[in-house]
Please model this.
Amino acid sequence: MTQTVGDFSAARQPARAASPPTARVVRIVELLAGAEQPSMTLAEIVRQTSMSRATAHAVVSELVECGWLIRDPSAGTFAVGPAFVGLVRSAESADHLVRWAASAARELCDRFDIPCFVARRTSTDAVTLASHAFPAHLTPESAPHPWLRNGSRIRLRPPICREFIAFDPDDARSDWVGQAAESTRTRLRMVLDVVADRGYSIERMTDDHVAMIEALSSLDTMSDTLRARVGDLLTELSVIDYLPEEIDACAADDTGVPVVTIGAPVFDAGQRVVAAIVVCPNRELRVDELHRLGEATRAAADGISRHLR
Model:
């Protein structure tokens, strides 16, 4: 049976069996890998971990054999070895952002049976689609989002990509809003405040939303003058995001909320938005469905942010 957004509360992860041998290895490595941790004797390791001497000796011997620990024969102590240090340095230099975010997007896709993608900030004024996930019944070719292609570049131009701008400093937000038609700037400022408070953007579903995004993404090929005119026109034609009172009105009237996408920001250690996880329901959602899906998307993005700190 296909799971819908309304089935959110029923989603459960399968129980995982514990692995005591793995836990013992991790405990000893964590014990000796601390920045201020001196070398330790086997007796000290036993006391710190509460393992039996025989168990601790077996684990430590295996770690020495693979180079994760080294033993000082004269002192009878153990310390972190070069193989482990090399592994840590390699992991630190690797770019894990897209990998982690792609995994989170896949989990959301499987959980709610809707397409999801990862957008990464690749310059000061553009994001690039770095990964996408589609339900089993869809393919990139058959999905109702023809602009969802890995490598697609989208300019950070009003009114799209709000989840990237809402958390920027005031001057950057003002510069972004200043690119929009003057008649839309008041709403854009309000929407950015709402996105920053809510934690995710909501793209309204309209008959022309796909055409609008494709047009906004192609503005780089135009002259500066024409780009500004077309961009202003597209912004004026769009109703930007949802304010809280508009969602409340839908709830009061018991009507659906038409939603194309929900995008939640991923922050780096400096609290800069470096990516977004975006889910694509592309249909009307009940208000409670919208809130559940939005919170799930924000939680997934927050999980990646914690890894990057």
Residues 1-15 have pLDDT under 50 and may be disordered. The beta strands are 40-41, 69-72, 77-80, 116-123, 126-133, 153-155, 201-204, 257-267, 273-279, 283-285. Residues 287-308 form the longest helix (22 residues).
